[in-house]
Amino acid sequence: MGGDHGPPVVLPAVVRALGVLPDSVRFQLHGDEATIQAGLAKRPDILARCEIRHAERVIAMDEKPAQALRRGKGTSMWNAIEAIREGEAAAALSAGNTGALMAISRLILRMCGELERPALVASMPTPKGVTTFLDVGANVDCDAERLVEFAIMGEAFHRAAHGTPHPTVGLLNVGSEEMKGHEEVREAHRVLREGRIPLDYKGFVEGDDITRGRVDVIVTDGFSGNVALKSMEGAARFVTGELRAALTSGLAASLGAILARPALRKFRDRLSPPPAAPLLGLNGIVLKCHGGATERDFSQSIQVAVDLARSGFTAEIERNMRRLPDALAEHAVDGADAAQTGAAQGVQK
Amino acid sequence: MGGDHGPPVVLPAVVRALGVLPDSVRFQLHGDEATIQAGLAKRPDILARCEIRHAERVIAMDEKPAQALRRGKGTSMWNAIEAIREGEAAAALSAGNTGALMAISRLILRMCGELERPALVASMPTPKGVTTFLDVGANVDCDAERLVEFAIMGEAFHRAAHGTPHPTVGLLNVGSEEMKGHEEVREAHRVLREGRIPLDYKGFVEGDDITRGRVDVIVTDGFSGNVALKSMEGAARFVTGELRAALTSGLAASLGAILARPALRKFRDRLSPPPAAPLLGLNGIVLKCHGGATERDFSQSIQVAVDLARSGFTAEIERNMRRLPDALAEHAVDGADAAQTGAAQGVQK
Question: Is the ipTM value over 0.90, yes or no?
Answer without folding.
Answer: no
